[in-house]
Write a structure and sequence with these properties.
The complex is a heterodimer of chains A (351) and B (361).
Chain A: H1 30-44, E1 65-72, E2 78-79, E3 82-83, H2 84-98, E4 102-113, H3 118-134, E5 138-147, E6 155-164, E7 181-184, H4 190-200, H5 216-224, E8 231-234, H6 239-251, E9 254-258, H7 266-275, E10 288-292, H8 294-305, E11 314-320, E12 327-330, E13 336-339
Parallel strand pairs in A: 4-5, 9-12
Antiparallel strand pairs in A: 1-6, 2-3, 4-6, 7-10, 7-11, 8-10, 9-11, 12-13
Helix pairs in contact in A: 1-3, 2-3, 2-5
Chain B: H1 10-23, E1 28-34, H2 35-43, E2 54-61, H3 63-66, H4 69-79, E3 84-88, H5 102-107, E4 111-114, H6 118-127, E5 132-139, H7 144-156, E6 162-169, H8 171-180, E7 188-192, H9 193-199, H10 205-211, E8 215-218, H11 222-237, E9 243-245, H12 257-266, E10 267-274, E11 278-287, H13 296-299, H14 315-319, H15 351-358
Parallel strand pairs in B: 1-2, 1-7, 3-4, 3-5, 5-6, 7-8, 8-9
Antiparallel strand pairs in B: 6-11, 10-11
The chains are: A alpha+beta (351), B alpha/beta (361).
Chain lengths: 351, 361
């Protein structure tokens, strides 16, 4: 079999024997051990994983921890700007970051479909390790299951994460105050449109690449600079619109945003227009909003803009007291509209 | 974005809104026929910019909304078959049939796919010669040339496993139905720019004359719609009733000759049932005899499937502009986009859905 060339060391599992994942790779025997030793342990290598124990045991600095978990089933496995592997690390790291935590350890659970190309798995695993290094986290424990062909879609990944909280701020919707500014960390709607374009074979003039990225270093930079942050939320499924509505409902405040202040890249906006999709509800994987006191807003904005990940950050609105917890957008033509939660998946329009 | 931002410019939009205020002396009720325009009006809050004398009512021009229940039931019957790949535009999948929708058929194991063009469905047929591939050909005159072209190419290329489930509707008979009703309140129309891009607007001229009602061919951006309203109000105030063209950057009086030819080649006019409204004579398109072997309704023998609309849904009144969506008792309660009782709550172009998304307090 001809080996494919990637910018990676070649897959150490002898592909001539097992070019695909077999049910036996999940059965606990020799093949599973070979997969773990030659692929997972080799790539994710660290002192905790090297303990070869049922779990990882470690000292935690400080006494306040954050924990989270998330599962990744994205189709296609590889898409412009990322893949299921990088996403599975960044997504969980970002959830920890939104709690104001420094991510330390992750666990990984793989559910593999019989027949998955070993080469694909190798690329995914390497991508996970690269994302983990960029996020300064270690993958310390894992699990592998293989299911019959047709019972899964190639590869599903669950990651759980632990982080430590090193500051005294209570970062949550409950901390939002009247007058807070809402700051968005960059342009929106790229991940969802990248996935849709790849999945449906839609071609535009430019390739739209996902915004997926680890936000932990950016958030730690904010926290280290001692600015007051009331709340943060990463924008994933449901997009900016849904995230704001959720926070408005939890915090019981009114939020007013200005559409012209929300950056959407030109090609993304065009793709949304063509398909009849509202960018406010399109998924992101490397963007967040933060709620900060008005007096801190410019400082936070400048800090964000100084980082390449959030160079297009923008103050998109503010929080106010109201009888109704709602999100109102000032449209570009000077009218107002109420933003609701996405009620179902967005479907392309007929005309 | 070129051809979009110019028409969403705050100063231009506010300027034309101001001009409407200046010329409006009496009260007028204007209907925008097209669901795409309804969506823009509600999304951008254009109705807030109008003087109180002007009432906008939302017409039956959302193809998803007027596709009759029995067509959806027929689609569901066909899509549930093991030997079928059922292709449709995205909006149609959530339209409730009598028992379920196409998304449920998919969840139950049916091969139901979203496509972006009927030509994509033809490609699916080419690649799956062991399956029967059916495309749900719904829409107004704007989608008819694409659907006609898919049938034409299937015939030309001898692709015999491709079929169309046709539920095409036409705008002018719907306008006539509204204008001839004794309940009619509509005094002026905005006609749909994309439909007229294909068909031109000659066929609207006899309607404007017969019913003494101005019709303005209008585009879809905020500036277009307000300018269309301005032109319509100006005619009303001056007691004129002509067909005028606001959407000059796209529409010619004679329309797109080539597109009209392919429609005529494949389809012929027939009576058609509209959801919530009932049968309207000469208001639909069906496949011509030469193309009957591509007619899914005949091939799968589903024409005996009929259905009645749910009683609590007042979409008939909404689609004729007699009631507003939020005047319905079920609006936002039993009837929501995640649980629609009627089709206008399903499509983002449906008046009920647009109200739910943007006008709910």
């Amino acid at each position: 079999m001809k080996k494919k060339e990637y910018n990676l060391p070649s897959c150490p599992i002898p592909v001539s024997d097992y070019p695909y994942v077999m049910l036996a790779h999940g059965s606990g025997g020799t093949l599973m051990n070979q997969l773990i030793d030659k692929m997972f342990r080799k790539v994710f290598k660290n002192e905790h994983l090297d303990q070869s124990h049922d779990g990882a045991v470690s000292e935690l600095p400080g006494n306040k921890i954050a924990m989270t978990t998330d599962s990744y089933v994205v189709d296609p496995i590889f898409f412009p700007g990322g893949d299921i592997g990088s996403l599975s690390i960044q997504g969980t790291v970002n959830d920890l970051a939104m709690c104001g935590a420094r991510p330390l350890f992750l666990t990984v659970g793989f559910i593999l479909e019989e027949g998955l190309s070993m080469d694909v798995l190798w690329r995914v695993v390497n991508s996970m390790q690269k994302a983990a290094e960029e996020s300064n986290v270690q993958i310390v424990s894992g699990d592998t299951k293989v299911v019959d062909k047709g019972k899964a879609d190639g590869i599903f990944i669950n990651t759980s994460g632990v982080g430590i909280v090193e500051h005294d701020q209570n970062i949550s919707p409950a901390s939002i105050e009247d007058g807070d500014c809402i700051i968005l960390s960059g342009d929106i709607a790229r991940h969802g449109m990248a996935i849709m374009a790849t999945r449906e074979g839609l071609t535009f003039e430019n390739v739209i690449e996902s915004d997926c990225a680890s936000l932990s270093s950016l958030v730690l930079q904010l926290l280290d600079s001692k600015v007051t942050i009331h709340c943060m939320r990463d924008l994933t499924r449901g997009g900016l619109g849904t995230a704001l509505v959720e926070i408005a409902k939890t915090s019981k405040f009114k939020m007013e945003i200005t559409e012209n202040e929300i950056p959407v890249r030109e090609d993304v906006r065009a793709a949304c227009e063509v398909l009849g999709i509202d960018p406010l509800y399109v998924a992101n994987e490397g963007r967040f909003v933060c709620f900060v006191p008005e007096c801190e807003a410019i400082k936070v904005l400048d800090l964000l803009k100084s980082n390449n990940l959030s160079k297009d950050a923008s103050i998109i609105g503010h929080v106010s007291k109201s009888d109704k917890a709602m999100v109102v957008a000032n449209s570009q033509i000077g009218t107002k509209r109420i933003i609701h939660m996405l009620s179902s998946s967005q479907l392309p329009r007929i005309c | 974005m070129k051809f979009v931002d110019e028409y969403r410019n705050k100063e231009s939009v506010q300027g034309v809104a101001q001009a409407i205020k200046q010329i409006t002396k009496k009260s007028w009720t204007i209907m925008e026929i097209c669901g795409g325009q309804t969506h823009s009006i509600i999304r951008f809050g254009l109705d807030e910019l109008l003087p109180k004398e002007i009432t906008l009512v939302h017409g039956p021009g959302c193809p998803v909304c007027v596709t009759p229940l029995e067509s959806v039931d027929r689609a569901i019957a066909i899509a549930s078959r093991d030997d079928v790949i059922f292709c449709s535009f995205g909006d149609m999948l959530r339209v409730p049939g009598s028992q379920k929708d196409l998304l449920s058929v998919k969840a139950e194991g049916g091969d139901v796919r979203i496509v972006y063009s009927p030509m994509d469905a033809l490609e699916v047929a080419r690649k799956n010669s062991d399956k029967k591939v059916v495309f749900f050909a719904v829409g107004f005159e704007a989608t008819a040339p694409g659907n006609a072209m898919a049938a034409y190419q299937a015939k030309k290329q001898n692709i015999n496993n491709f079929f169309l489930l046709v539920s095409h509707v036409l705008v002018p008979p719907a306008i006539e139905m509204i204008l001839s009703s004794d309940k009619n309140q509509v005094q002026g129309f905005l006609a749909a720019g994309h439909v007229c891009t294909i068909m031109g607007y000659e066929e609207y001229e006899p309607l404007a004359a017969k019913y003494k009602t101005p019709i303005v061919v209008t585009g879809f951006e905020p500036f277009d719609i307000l300018q269309g309203i301005y032109m319509c109000v100006k005619q009303l105030e001056e007691n004129r009733y002509e067909v005028e063209n606001q959407y000059v950057r796209s529409v010619r009086r004679e329309g797109n000759i080539v597109a009209k030819e392919i429609i005529d080649h494949v389809f012929e006019v027939s009576s058609r049932k509209w959801r919530g409204i009932g049968s309207i004579p000469r208001s639909g398109l069906i496949l011509k005899k030469d193309y009957s072997k591509f007619d899914a309704e005949k091939i799968f023998d589903v024409s005996n499937i009929t259905a009645n609309e749910p009683k609590e849904c007042i979409s008939a009144l909404v689609l004729q502009g007699i009631k507003k969506p939020n005047e319905c008792d079920a609006f936002g309660k039993q009837c929501r986009p995640d649980h629609p009782l009627g089709a206008p709550m399903v499509s983002s172009e449906g008046a009920c859905s647009a109200y739910y998304r943007y006008k709910r307090e």
